[in-house]
Amino acid sequence: MATVAGALAAWTVGLVPVLYGERLGNWPAAVQVPAVAAGALVMVFAIGVAQWYVLRRWSDRAVLWIWGNAVGWIAGLAAFTTVTTPLWRAGQSTTVTAVIGALGGVVMAAVVAVTTGTFLVRILVPGHPRASV
């Protein structure tokens, strides 16, 4: 439930520019910049904060999960972009586009898993040499 709540918050904020981009584009820069920054922070940290709320019951170091999740998703999205951007071309078939997207998704999932898994070991494994971050 925590993950669903965090993801719902992140995706809702992420949809605002898609749904209202033209209207938001008419705002003055002095309003746009802080609004975009606040939205980006919500999108990056929402899932980690929601999951931290559950993890804190098991570890005093659970606050690291907020950062681990944020770093994992940022790294995963960067990996997705790195893999897919050079491969996607205008006029490609839907099948090729989907295969490239799936490849990027697998790479993204692996990067997120490795990153968040590393943080999770540091948080939950007592006596782990890297647990005292």
Distance between the termini: 28 Å
| Sheet with most strands | none
Cα gyration radius (Å):
18 Å
Overall strand count: 0
Tally the helices: what do you get?
A: 4
Instruction: Flag low-confidence runs.
Output: none
What global shape is seen? flat
What fraction of the residues are assigned to beta strands by DSSP?
A: under 5%
Structural class estimated from helices and strands: mainly alpha
Could you state the order of secondary-structure elements as H and E?
A: HHHH
Arithmetic mean pLDDT: 91
Concise structural overview:
This protein has 133 residues and is mainly α. Helix content is 78%, strand content 0%.
Structure description:
With 133 residues, the chain is mostly helical. The protein is 78% helix and 0% strand. It is built from four helices and no strands. It has helices at residues 2-25, 29-55, 63-84, 94-124. The longest helix is centred in the C-terminal third of the chain and has 31 residues, at 94-124. The radius of gyration is 18 Å and the shape is flat. The two termini are 28 Å apart.
Key phrases:
mainly alpha
List the helices and strands and how they pair.
Blueprint: H1 2-25, H2 29-55, H3 63-84, H4 94-124
Helix pairs in contact: 1-2, 2-3, 3-4
